[in-house]
Amino acid sequence: MAQMTMIQAITDALRTELRNDENVLVFGEDVGVNGGVFRATEGLQKEFGEDRVFDTPLAESGIGGLAIGLSTQGFRPVPEIQFFGFVYEVIDSISGQAARWRYRTGNTFNAPITIRSPFGGGVFTPEMHADSLEGLMAQQPGLKVVIPSTPYDAKGLLISAIRDNDPVIFLEHMKLYRSFRQEVPEEEYTIPLGKADVKREGTDLTIVTYGAMVHDSIKAAEELEKEGHSVEVIDLRTVSPLDIETIIASVEKTNRAIVVQEAQKQAGIAANVVAEINDRAILSLEAPVLRVAAPDTVYPFAQAEPVWLPNHKDIVETAKKVLEF
Amino acid sequence: MASKTKKAQFDAVKTLETIESKFEMVQILNEKGEIVKDATVPDMTDEQLEELMRRMVYTRILDQRSISLNRQGRLGFYAPTAGQEASQVASHFALEKEDFILPGYRDVPQIVWHGLPLYQAFLWSRGHFMGMQVPEGVNVLPPQIIIGAQIIQATGVALGFKKRNQKAVAITYTGDGGSSQGDFYEGINFAGAYGAPAIFIVQNNQFAISTPRELQTAGKTIAQKAVAAGIPGVLVDGMDPLAVYAAVKEARERAINGGGPTLIETMCYRYGPHTMAGDDPTRYRTSDEDSEWEKKDPLVRFRTYLEGKGIWNEEKENAVIEQAKEDIKEAIKQADAAPKQKVTDLISNMFEQLPHNLEEQYEIYKEKESK
Hints:
The complex is a heterodimer of chains A (325) and B (371). With 325 residues, chain A is an alpha/beta fold. Chain A contains twelve helices and 14 strands. In chain A, the strands form four sheets. A five-stranded mixed β-sheet of chain A has the order 9-11-10-13-14, sandwiched between helices. Chain A has a four-stranded mixed β-sheet with strand order 5-7-6-12. Chain A has a three-stranded parallel β-sheet with strand order 3-2-4, sandwiched between helices. Chain B is an alpha/beta fold and 371 residues long. In chain B, 47% of the residues lie in helices and 8% in strands. Chain B is built from 14 helices and seven strands. In chain B, α9 (241-259) links the parallel β6 and β7 (262-267). In chain B, α2 (46-71) packs across α3 and α5 (118-126) crosses α12 (314-336). The longest helix of chain B has 26 residues, at 46-71. The A-B interface holds A 51, 56-57, 59, 61-62, 64-75, 92-93, 96-97, 102-110, 141-142, 144, 164-166, 194, 241-245 and B 100, 102, 129-134, 141-142, 146, 149, 151-161, 163-164, 170, 182-183, 186-187, 189-190, 193, 346, 348-352, 355-358.
C-alpha cells in the first residue's frame, strides 16, 4: 500500500495498463514529454516510449477521430481532453461515432476507448474549464460515464474503464486531484463499472451523489449526525448506467433521499436518479426526493464560485427539509 | 506631385496566384478517348484495363437499378453515383485488399468492390443492422453520414498501420462541400503531422446538394487545401479513369514507403440528384451544364480507348450489363430474406456486456416479442 493523491492513483492506473497491454495508447495535448498539464501522465512517455504515449496537434475533434481510427486497428486508445469544457469540439466523435460504433456495425466493430478529462469547480479556473457536462454524456446510448471521488476508486475504476471493450468517459474532478491522500494498493485491482459505493452508512436519509459533492455530503452527514440524524452517503462512481440496486436498497431502508450534484439543476444526472426512485420505491418514501444543484446559469466567473457552487451547507439545508417534511 | 501607385512590399496576392497556378488538372485520357500528349499512361495489363471497364459499367447499371428500386420502394436511402465511376471505381482499383476504406454516404460502390456483399449494401440502404455487419477480412467501414468524420478517423486508421509497420493505406472520400468542414482540415493536418499513410480523396462533383462549389471556398482548387496541412495535393480529371488510377497508385506508393498522406481532388459530376430523398437538381443547375458534362462521361472515353486497343466491344459490355442485372436481382432477393429486426437485436448490439438499464429493457422487449 502507498499513500497516493488521486492524480498519482490515475498515473499508477495508466502505468499498470500500459504495462499489461501493448495495445494501450495514451495521447492528447501535452501528455507526452510534458507529462500532462496536471502531471497525470508524468514519466509515462519516458518509460513506454513515444510510440505509446504521445502528443497531438491542438484539435479535440481530431483526437477523437484518431482514437476511433486506432481502435479499428486493434489498439486500446486512452486519449485525454485537456478540460472537459472543450468536449463540444469532439461531441461528434464521442456521441455521434464511438458510442454508436458497435451498434452501427451490428457488433462487428467495437470502440474500446477511454476518454480521460478533468472538470469541476473550486479552483478558480478560467472560462470553460470547470463546467460539469456529465449530463450530456449520460444521455448518449453506448457510453459509460465514470466519476471517481477518491484515489482508491480512481485507480480501480480507471483500470476497469481501460479494459472495457466499449467507450468510457472518465471524468476527473480537478479539486480532488491533490486535495487528500489515501491508501492505494500498489498492485493492480479493478472496481466494476456501474457499481455505487456506500461511503457512509445511515438509517434516516440517503444522499445520492458523485464527484466533489461526495466529500461535501460526508461533511454534511457529520454535521447532521451531531443533531441526531443518521445519514447514508452513496457515491455513484458511475453516473451512467446507474447502480439502481444500491440506490433503491438504501432508499427502502431510510425512506428519505436527496440527490446532490455540482452541475446546474437543469443539467447533471440528479433528475434521472429522482425519476428512478419515484418509479421503483415511491411506496417507501416519507417525503419527496429533493435535489441539491447549482443555479441554472452559465458556470460562474471565477470569483463567484464560492457563492455559486453547492456546498455542505446547502446539503444540510435540503436534508433538513426532507427530514422535517 | 502626383502620388505613384505604391508597390506592395509583401505581394501576398502574387504568392497566392503562384500557389494556385501549381495545381493544374492532370489528365491522361481526353474526352475523345485519346491519350493526351505527354501523358504518362499507368502501367496496366489488358486484363486490368478490361476489368476496370467491367466494374465501371457494372457500377453504372447498379446506379440505374438502385434509382429504380428506390422509386419502387424496394430500397431506402440512396445517393446516386452515375458520372463518378472513374473517381470511385478507378481510385478503388489502385488499392490492395489490406487497404482500409472509410467511405462517405455516396461511396457504396468502393466498399462493394472491396468485398462487401451487394445484398448487405442494399440492407444498409433500407436501414437494417445486418447491412453493415462487415465480413471478416473486408477492410471497410459503413458509409459515413457525418460529413468530415471519416477524414479524422482515416488518420487514426493510417496511424494504426504505421504503428503496426503494415504496408497498407487508409483511403477516405468526401465531396466538395465536405472540404469546408473542420474535420476535413483536422484530418489531413493530423495525417501530415504524423506522416500517416492516408489518401484523402475529394470528389468535387460541383455541387453540395444545391450549393455550387464556388460558394464553398474562394480557393481556386480544393487540392490546394493540402498546402495548409503541408502535404502533397493533386488535382485530377475525375472523369478520366486512367488519371484517377495513376494519382491514387502514386499516392499509395508514397504512403507505404513512408512518404505520408496525399490529398487528391477529382473533378467530376453527378448526373443524378444529390439523393433520392426529394432533391430536384433542375432547381439549381442548367441542362446546358448537364450536357456539357455528359460529353465528359468516363464510360464513353474509356470505351473508345479500349475499343481502339481492341480489348472491348458491345458484346462484352452487354455481358456485363446482364451479369449486373442478374446479380442485383439476386441481391435484392437475399436482402428480402433477411429477418425483420427486433428491439432485442438492437439492444444486444449496444455493448459487449449489457448495463443494468438495457438488461431490464431486454427482458421487457423479449416478453413483448414472444407474444
